[in-house]
Design brief:
Elements (H helix, E strand, L loop, with lengths): L1 E10 L6 E3 L9 E10 L9 E11 L11 E5 L5 E2 L4 E2 L1 E4 L24 E7 L14 E4 H6 L22 E7 L1 H7 L3 H4 L3 E5 L18 E6 L2 E2 L5 E9 L15 E13 L7 H6 L11 E2 L12 H8 L3 E6 L5 E6 L3 E2 L22 E3 L4 E3 L1 H15 L1 H33 L19 H9 L3 H8 L11 E3 L2 E3 L17 H14 L6 H4 L10 E7 L1 H11 L10 H12 L7 E6 L2 H4 L4 E5 L9 E6 L4 E6 L5 E5 L6 E3 L5 E5 L9 E7 L7 E3 L5 E3 L1 H12 L7 H8 E2 L2 E8 L4
Parallel strand pairs: 6-16, 17-25, 19-22
Antiparallel strand pairs: 1-37, 2-12, 3-4, 5-8, 7-31, 8-13, 9-15, 10-11, 11-16, 12-13, 14-35, 15-16, 18-19, 20-25, 21-22, 23-24, 25-26, 26-29, 27-30, 28-29, 30-37, 31-36, 32-33, 34-35
Helix pairs in contact: 6-12, 7-10, 10-13
Amino acid sequence: MTTHPTEQTAPADDTPVTFHDHLLPGVEAGRYRITVGQRFPAEDLPGAGLDPVEQIVDVRAAQFRLDPSWVHAVYPAPHSQGPFHGLLPHITLNPAALPWEREPFTAGVQNPARAPWLALLLFGEGELPGDPNALGTAASLTVRALLDGDAAVSGPALDRDAVDPALLDTPCQVVDVPRELLAQLLPAPSDLAFLSHVRSGGEDAVPAGGQDGRLGRDPHAVITTARFPDSAQGRYVAHLVSLEGHTPPGPQADGKPVRLVSLHSWTFTSCPESGDGFGRLAGRFAPGNGEHSAAPLRPAPTADTGLPDELGTLLEQGMVPMTHITESGERALAWYSGPFLPRVAPELPRPADGHFPDADGLLLHEPHTGTFATGYACAWNVGRALALADPGFSTTLVRLRHQGRLRRATDRQYATYRRQLFHSAPSAGPAPRMAARTAAPTPREQFEELLRGDALDALATAFGIPEDDEPRPRTVRAAPTAYRLDAPRRSSAPQQPSSDARETAAWLAKLRTLGGVPFDCLVPDQRMLPPESLRLFHVDRGWLHALLDGARSLDRHPRADTTTDAELDDLLDGQGPVPAAGLLLRSALVPGWPTLRVEARTSSGTTPVEVIRREALGSDVLLVLFEKTPDHLTISEPRQGLHFGVDDQGNVALRSLTPGEVGRPLERSVPVGADPALTVTTPAGARVLDVGRLAARLAEDVKPGSALSPAEFAVQLVRAPEQLTLSFEGTTR
């Protein structure tokens, strides 16, 4: 099995995601005065006019705190490390209308562009006086204290009467930001609208709180910061802050810090040289990178060791030399192979009844070295050990076998009784009687006497016997009568599987996908799966058969349990396909991208290969089992886990905005990182995007003569997920 890269770290652009400018609520939060008046047409009549009626209505929405469940995902992930200097951190919120339920700034500031009242601000180490180490520390105040204000800071000017009285004594988190720093980081009110949009469909790469990353088709609000993390290593804290009640940023005479309500925050560390980016990590799996290259799962023989050809062949076939302790306690050399092999394993001969009775019969002799191959025997013992370790399964299996034996014994007894009933009928004529008989007739004699009457016909109709047990014509009272009983065999009647049988088959089906099998049995030598490696394999079905036979060996009798074994075989056939191939990935990609996409296809490149099992076997190991051996394998970032920013060269790759082709790459880009007019370095050293100028610059290329909307701006800033595609040779079965 060899690998060749056909497309390395190429953008995956077929993302079924829809962008919207905003989702405006029917009524914004706030206090409203509703006046109702009525007047009749004839105004000169007495009593024609009625006095107006006024009603105060409060429309309430989130203001000082957010429900944690409303935060669907953030990027970069909390407490993560990586090369984030080319990305704009963002937050995804479940209530899609939340950013537009209130007005930013004070009531005197016009908001024609529908800017949100929320903004995402990024702070580095040493920038926030209350959090110099960027650890996410925020001060806690009651809402009452926030509204009362503090002479040392400039807080929000909010109407106390419009605040729910029940919230006045609840806590809220605040950060005090130096006014000059806030003026450098926060865009102008007209530019804030470009930093928020609504997205429907897709999934996020790193969900918040470990929840499922799939978004479905429900809309979600996305808010992006305008600041890039610095190219040097450093820790950052992102705060989702409220702009309600504030004035637009700008130099003020008093120079007081601005107190902002922080609704959500998280920290991360940008390490440009850490090599933790998806492209760098996935790129190692391409050929030419030594042990990191994608390769078959096999022991790696040491170069220039002078091993004999026989030993080298065994290593190439996936055999690992191990110490074998015999039953007598002697130590010897043996070869072990797990279920994952770099080759298609030959079919393992099976006993006549289809099941291996014990592990000793699975010790195979290796003729080249004169030792044993213990892989199948180990599989049998592992299956039996796992069955014994599960009291629920072992109890169910033993009960199922006892029920099967009881049914078999009952059927045999029933058949024997019927044979005795019909094949032991008396011959013609009356039975000879002894001249002198003083003893009472025995029960058998009484029963035979009954058979001389019409009782035999009634019994023949009531009981019946199988065709293979059909009696030859017999005579009763010298009158020959032939009996053919056409009743079907009792065992041939269709029966629904019992709950014990279904439960046992489901447990065995999970074991067939190697659920619960120790990792050492799958990868016996850690050198077979070094750090930052991808290994491919075929699944040895003989190993799986031995594993299941070991689990089914509990209380098994070869002859008495044939019916139960056949029933389990039929149920297992309906439990889905058997694994044929798979991959093991040991990389930082596993914890860094929990929803990493792994797609396999056939030689045509269009038919997907079904994934039977996908599971993380540790903090950095991912196992994927396929229904059949694929010819093409693609590993990519979550296609809808969209990030925003520039590429490694600091450019924004332009995308089409034509209906029906939205998002299609235009094969040209705009340099952003190298243009000081588009990326401004503030006096504090922060790299901040000039949102307004960039939107105008992008519109010149993709939409001449028109301005970009927030959704169109977001499409241009999407940083396409990367992927690595591998093709395989010699994988057909």
